[in-house]
Write a structure and sequence with these properties.
41% of the residues lie in helices and 13% in strands. The chain is an alpha/beta fold and 258 residues long. The protein has two domains: 2-78, no CATH class; 85-248, no CATH class.
């Protein structure tokens, strides 16, 4: 058993719970662990950085099969709350979510939703995009459950594209204080424990440091940092964020969370 102290953690996310975590999978720059309750934890290298469910270690590959998060620790706590809506420069943010995102996102990401002239790389991508267009039509009518059911779990990878898009959409709803965020959150969750944890974080407005900084002060460097999240995860999240921000930019929100 390795404690945070013995592992020389550099930071721990503010949504990391105490207890014992078992290693589930090891990757090049991170290790995925799970608590007995099914809650995930990510032990990551410094270049990945702070996150609400992250423990940052210089060499995450060097500890064994368990990690103990003690109740009391002197390790720096990362506070993951996204900026308040009034502190987010939406005009500047949308600038970087337009052409710069379209030019930087992987072609097999959901950026194809915003580039109608780009031919889908496969019939599967064409069918995927058609499904997302249908879902977005539901979202435009505030039919949160119908839209989420269409795309949750859609795609491959540790977190499917549909789940990443829904995370971005939840963040946009928080920025605009939209009615229905709890309904969308509930309808978005499926059988993927990692996606569910990220959806929980998005619904609570808890984000990775890179996204926190990008929301507060959008820049091309910040955009590139987020696009480096997984193969398409960062791009797909930003596509969901863009859809919501564009849709509700001039539409008054409602503060009810119903």
């Amino acid at each position: 058993m390795v404690s945070l102290f013995e592992a020389a953690a550099l930071s721990v996310g503010d949504r990391v719970r105490t207890g014992r975590y078992q290693v589930q999978a090891r990757f090049e720059r991170s290790v995925l662990l799970f608590h007995s309750t099914g809650r995930p934890l990510f032990v990551v290298r410094p270049e990945i950085g702070d996150g609400p469910l992250n423990v940052v270690l210089p060499h995450p590959e060097q500890f064994g099969e368990e990690l103990l998060i003690p109740r009391k620790t002197t390790v720096r706590r990362y506070m993951s709350a996204m900026p308040e809506p009034e502190d987010i420069p939406q005009t500047k943010l949308l600038h970087f979510l337009a052409t710069p995102l379209e030019e930087g996102a992987p072609p097999d990401s959901l950026i194809s939703l915003y580039r109608p002239c780009m031919q889908p790389s496969s019939p599967a991508q064409k069918n995927r995009d058609r499904l997302f267009f249908q879902a977005c039509a539901h979202f435009a009518r505030e039919e949160w459950c119908s839209g989420a059911t269409l795309v949750r779990g859609s795609g491959s990878g540790l977190t499917p594209s549909g789940d990443d898009f829904l995370c971005g959409l939840l963040l946009a709803m928080r920025i605009h204080r939209k009615w229905g965020i709890q309904r969308l959150h509930y309808a978005s969750k499926g059988g993927n424990a990692i996606s569910n944890a990220f959806l929980d974080m998005a619904a609570q407005g808890r984000v990775h440091r890179g996204l926190q900084l990008f929301l507060r002060q959008p820049s091309i460097g910040g955009l590139r940092d987020i696009l480096a999240f997984g193969h398409t995860s960062g791009a797909d999240l930003l596509c969901g964020l863009r859809w919501g921000l564009e849709r509700w930019r001039n539409v008054p929100g409602r503060r009810s969370s119903g």
